[in-house]
Design a protein that fits this description.
- It is built from six helices and 13 strands.
- By secondary structure, the chain is α/β, with parallel strands linked by helices.
- It has two domains: 2-163, Cytidine Deaminase, domain 2 (3-Layer(aba) Sandwich); 173-222, no CATH class.
- Strands 9-8-7-6-2-3-1-10-11 form a nine-stranded mixed β-sheet.
- The protein binds zinc ion.
- The site of zinc ion (ZN) has 6 residues, from loops.
């Protein structure tokens, strides 16, 4: 199963303004997310952002934050009714790019009670944001196990993708020239993309061939009648 989290660039900016404030101390926000549970991938889409007020935190330091989870109660009711996901996001102002041991401990304490409110076992997640706006997230299971979100996607003027696995992929023979022209990193990005093409005749067929030669990982082709082929 692959997990992803998507949001707009405005939502990303809103989260950053709250979880990475000018005082250089950690802070938390909760994102209520819609979800699409597929057979092989599970997508979370940010619907609403609820900042945890700074004054509701019993501890706020440069490397830890502690807050009253009573604030979650009204959100849990809504999440349960609408089968939404709770995503806890906190800032790492010191740029530490992993969840810390303190994070592990607090997620293992918090998430079992979140699952306890829900009527299903759909996943919920915990994420950190770094000063460069990068978001790194993980699913926390009801048993307190962690599994990385494969990608966090931010949609705005630009498309931003933050991948858990940044290893460059092997470049197949047919795409070597693309990789040489655009660089291996760009090629790795193309390989991870899934592109939908509506209309597969005149222009579409050329576009499909071109994208295939560029090494785009997955092509979803739709006829003009919008039937998937
Ligand atoms: Zn942390």
């Amino acid at each position: 199963m692959k997990y992803s989290l998507s949001m707009t660039d405005q939502q990303q900016a809103e989260i950053k303004a709250h979880v990475l404030p000018a005082d250089g101390k950690e802070a938390v926000a909760i994102a209520l997310c819609g979800r699409r549970a597929g057979a092989t991938s599970h997508r979370l889409l940010v619907n609403k952002i609820i900042p945890v007020p700074y004054e509701a935190c019993s501890i706020r330091e440069a490397n830890r934050v502690s807050w009253s989870t009573d604030l979650l109660i009204p959100l849990l009711g809504e999440a349960s009714r609408r089968r939404m996901a709770i995503v806890k996001i906190h800032g790492h102002p010191q740029n530490y790019p992993w969840h810390s041991e303190v994070d592990d401990e607090s997620d293992r304490e918090l998430f079992p009670s979140i699952y306890g409110w829900m009527e299903d076992d759909n996943p919920h997640a915990s994420a950190i944001m770094l000063p460069n706006e990068q978001i790194i997230g993980r699913i926390v299971s009801p048993e307190g196990m962690f599994e990385s979100l494969n990608v966090v996607k931010v949609v705005g003027e630009d498309l931003k993708f933050y991948y858990a696995n940044t290893d460059l992929q092997n470049v197949p023979e047919f795409a070597k020239r693309t990789a040489q022209t655009f660089g291996e990193e760009t090629f790795a990005k193309l390989k991870r993309l899934k592109v939908g093409i509506v209309g597969c005749s005149g222009t579409g067929s050329w576009v499909i061939e071109q994208l295939g030669r560029y090494g785009v990982g997955t092509l979803d082709l739709l006829q003009k009648s919008l039937r998937k082929i």
